Amino acid sequence: MKRALCLMLLTVFIFLAGCGTAPVRKEPEIPAKRPVSEYVKPDVTYSIDAYDPWEPMNRRIYNFNAIFDNYVFLPVVQAYEFVLPVFVQTGITNFFKNLTEVTNLTNALLQFKIEKAVNTFGRICINTTVGLGGLIDVATLNDGIPREEEDFGQTLGFYGVGPGPYLVLPILGPSDLRDTAGLAVDSVVYSLMLGQLIAELGMDDTYEDILNYSLTAVYAVDKRHNEPFRYFKTGSPFEYDLIRRLYLIKRQFQIDN
Amino acid sequence: MKKSLLILIFSMLLGVIASPAGAYDYKVDDPYVSTIVGTPEVLEYDKLPKKVDYELLGLKVFPDRPTPEVFWYQREFLYTLSYQKQEAPLIFVIAGTGSSFYASSMIFLQKAFYGAGFHVICLSSPTQMNFITTASATCVPGNIVEDTQDLYRVMSLAWEQIKDRIKVSEFYLTGYSLGASQSAFVAKLDEEKRVFNFKKVLMINPAVSLYTSAKILDDMLLEINPNRSPEVFDRWFNERLAKFGEAYRLLNQPPLDHDFLYDAYRVLHKKGQTPRRENLAGMIGTVFRLASSNMIFAADVMANYGLIVPKNRVLGSADSLTDYMKVTTRVSFIDYFNEFLYPYSQSRNPGLTKEALIEGTSLRSIEPYLRNTPKIVLMDNEDDLILTPEDIAFLKDVFGARAKIYPRGGHCGNMTFRDNVAYMLNVFKN
Question: How far is it, in rounded angstroms, from Cα A212 to Cα A195?
């Protein structure tokens, strides 16, 4: 039921995003002094280029995200930062980082990155026990065991799946088709695990649902709280292009390492 | 045994005291490296407040100006204010070419001056997109005299907006790079308008001639691409990007300024890698090119000039700008000057020669004022990359005892070095 609603909203949203009003031209166009046709060769790949066949939709979602950030997401994050003491915020961040280690572990294993898998397993054991259910990141203290970020997008990349078209996800931001698929798989693994954990608590179904939704909401706020990116702060009219390129470079590096 | 230890300690102490007076501990002697890498962390000014609270404030400078759809997110002119609870001096800080108040140098100056007890207002450069779209009267930056009027307008409006909330004892002004050159012009304009009566003005690494400095920076790209071939540049840039990817993973910070490309070099530098000279020059040129192309595109759209975007074309908020970016990044600042700024200025001011425009954007045009105004102070470096030997000689001659010229530091590379910061703060304390 919830999923169906989400899907519906998303479809409506993308439909709306796709319908732009065509700009009204008042005076006839005069070719530029340095026209694109003269400077850009269609058969050459430039360093800023990226495979982005859905660019108009992506740009609209990018703009939507900026507005959503400005009016909804960031105000909520600010309230969260204002209300909660810093050590509580850190605790919450650690808690979710510990929960999401499960996908770091599965994906390190799927790529046979044994050292990373061992590290991650060690982190889960230490932080869940000594770190009081993950609230304290004991494992990282004193140059301890580093956190290894591995996700299913990287696993797919490891097995040779290319990025596919660039994709800007509503609210979540830059991605590509491969990483979006990866995100979906990781989310399923994560929610299965979370569901199991919650079931262990032995609560009523209604309370279980409430807990599940609350955790998801807090997780989203915590994630934004830890993400320094702000839309349109680069001071470049070409921010979309820059961010797209940087995202793809960064992902390629994560896959190669 | 004990005695010899004492002697040892004593002689070590003597050694510390006896190190030549005025020795300058900023040791990076390659101006290309210092310009990019800045000051090693251990030598940075360490009395900065960790975090400075600031308010992001907006001004409608031209309330009737419509915002083009492609710049839908540029509704207001933005600036930041950090204020003290008690009465304090207010300092305006003007950013360098293409930079906003989010630039790392701006954040640094904000912290340094706030920590020293000032109210601080940080202003983006008139060459920065937000300024061009919302606060520039012509939307065509680069003519310092006009840019100065724009700056003065926003400074006055900003002061109007906040004056009931903070207690100000007196006004100060500073800026780095192009912002330093502009602060001299602003100080001069203030002598007529008298809104602020600046008590002291500090210029940090100014361009003497905007045209000359821009040309030097433009030409840095020739070191890696002498024939201006886009293919050669792209290949070179892709190689750099391949290296940056790694640095980015380590940094995990989104870019807030065009000099984000430097961040990666800082990471590499920390790991003990020093790139070759031409690559350093190429990177400085690239960063400048990114800044100037942001400026050129914004000016072209706002003035409907038709340099890169066809005249009268209305760009929508979701239109691809990638192809325009490819063209704009191939237009140098000097191209912009010749093909846009000069003809545009001439159309509004017939009879204006190119030489006159170049001269008008140079500190030489206000030499008598600079020479005879004791409140203006200069901090600069002997090896500043954007200055010619004649420029340095001009600055020494004009400012005399009011010039503090360090032997090393490149272009703004030593701005965060502890001695430099101590000097900056001291300028305003006396």
Answer: 8
Which residues in chain A have their CB less than 8 angstroms from residue B307's CB? 32-34
Residues B295 and B62 sit within 8 Å (Cβ to Cβ): no
Q: Does residue A118 contact residue A129 with C-beta atoms inside 8 Å? A: no
Model ipTM value: 0.89
B295 exposure class (CB count in 10 Å sphere: 0-12, 13-18, 19+): buried
Record the tokens describing residue A44, joined without a space. 């050459």
3-state secondary structure of A113: coil
Cα-based distances in Å from B407 to B31, B36, B395, B404: 10, 17, 14, 10
pTM listed for this prediction: 0.91
User: Å from A242 to nearest chain B CA?
Assistant: 9
Q: Where is B84: in which H helix or E strand?
A: none
> Per the domain annotation, does A26 fall within a domain?
no
Residue among B128, B242, B323 minimizing CB distance to A235:
B128
Element (H, E) at B289: helix B277-303
Kindly identify which residue of chain A lies nearest to residue B297, measuring between CA atoms: A237
Q: Kindly list the distances between the CA atom of residue B380 and the CA atoms of B99, B186, B297, in Å, as whole numbers in the listed order.
A: 19, 19, 31
SS3 A22: coil
Cα nearest neighbour of A234 on chain B: B256
Q: Which domains does chain B have, with CATH numbers?
A: 31-209+362-429 (3.40.50.1820), 215-348 (no CATH)
**β-pairing verdict for A173-176 and A166-169:** antiparallel
Separation in Å, CA of B244 to nearest CA in chain A = 9
Q: Which helix (H) or strand (E) holds A200?
A: helix A177-200
Instruction: Give the number of domains in chain A.
Output: 1
- CA A196/CA A198 separation, integer angstroms: 5
Q: Which residues of chain A have pLDDT under 50?
A: 1-5, 12, 14-22
Is residue A192 situated within a structural domain? Answer: yes
At B82 the three-state DSSP class reads strand
Among B residues 118-177, those touching chain A with beta carbons less than 8 Å apart? 124, 128-130
Signed CA dihedral, B364, B367, B369, B374: sign only: positive
Structure-token match 């910061």, residue found: B421
Chain-centroid distance of CA B402 in Å reads 21
Let me know if residue A44 belongs to a domain.
no
Please tell me the distance in Å from A225's CA to the nearest CA on chain B.
14
Number of other residues whose CB lies within 10 A of the CB of residue A43: 4
Residue B91: left (phi > 0), alpha (psi -120 to 50), or beta? beta
Q: Strand, coil or helix: what is A41? A: coil
How many CB atoms are located within 10 Å of the residue B252 CB? 10
- Which tokens is B286 given? 């690239």
Count other Cβ atoms within 10 Å, centred on residue A64. 17
Residue ranges with strand state E in B292-402: 376-381
Residue A81 in domain: yes
Secondary structure letter of residue B376 according to DSSP: E
Range of the domain at A115: 53-256
pLDDT mean by block of 10 residues, chain B; 430 residues: 50 45 82 90 86 94 96 97 97 96 94 97 98 98 97 98 97 98 98 98 98 97 93 88 64 61 76 84 93 97 97 96 96 97 96 96 98 98 97 98 96 95 92
